[in-house]
Amino acid sequence: NAGVTQTPKFQVLKTGQSMTLQCAQDMNHEYMSWYRQDPGMGLRLIHYSVGAGITDQGEVPNGYNVSRSTTEDFPLRLLSAAPSQTSVYFCASTSTSGRGSEQFFGPGTRLTVL
Amino acid sequence: SQQGEEDPQALSIQEGENATMNCSYKTSINNLQWYRQNSGRGLVHLILIRSNEREKHSGRLRVTLDTSKKSSSLLITASRAADTASYFCARSGGSNYKLTFGKGTLLTVNP
Fold this sequence. Notes:
The complex is a heterodimer of chains A (114) and B (111).
Chain A: E1 4-7, E2 10-13, E3 19-25, E4 31-37, E5 43-51, E6 54-57, E7 64-66, E8 76-78, E9 87-94, E10 104-105, E11 109-113
Parallel strand pairs in A: 2-11
Antiparallel strand pairs in A: 1-3, 3-8, 4-5, 4-9, 5-6, 7-8, 9-10, 9-11
Chain B: E1 5-7, E2 10-14, E3 19-24, E4 31-37, E5 43-50, E6 55-58, E7 61-66, E8 71-76, E9 85-92, E10 99-101, E11 105-110
Parallel strand pairs in B: 2-11
Antiparallel strand pairs in B: 1-3, 3-8, 4-5, 4-9, 6-7, 7-8, 9-10, 9-11
């Protein structure tokens, strides 16, 4: 199993540009989420999904859109990039079959907005 | 807001010593998890402790949970240089799947 994969690894955008960060998992996990990590900070939840067709907002959703058309994929869209969105983005997934379990994280996408 | 807060923010020890990191939170939890992050990498799950548990062990790791004090501690025994990383606690509250992370403790183990 590849686990959780993210592309691209690095990205530089200009203010106002749009892009999609890709996330895929091959573990058949129902729950997927996006976090951003800023220097000296922990991870903050952007959006999450408990299954295909179901998404919801996390702590810092403004400026980001998500969709979940399949169990495997959970892309994160930046509609109009701003310098405040410069960050490292992590995607994670977990199974919802138990009473709460570990989340598996991707390697991250390092985004710089100029 | 971030509900899990680790203490200390940074810890530097010698190889072979024990490292203790603490985590406090403000609201009730279903479980509390600890993760490790090596520089520039993704997070790796270390251990999960449920709200009805008081202590768990995994190899050189020992986690305690005191729900009355809303706090948890992670003990790494006989530390190694390879344990150098940032350690985060993450609490799971109303939903078993949404995690709220603290800011982490940066552990440096000197050879």
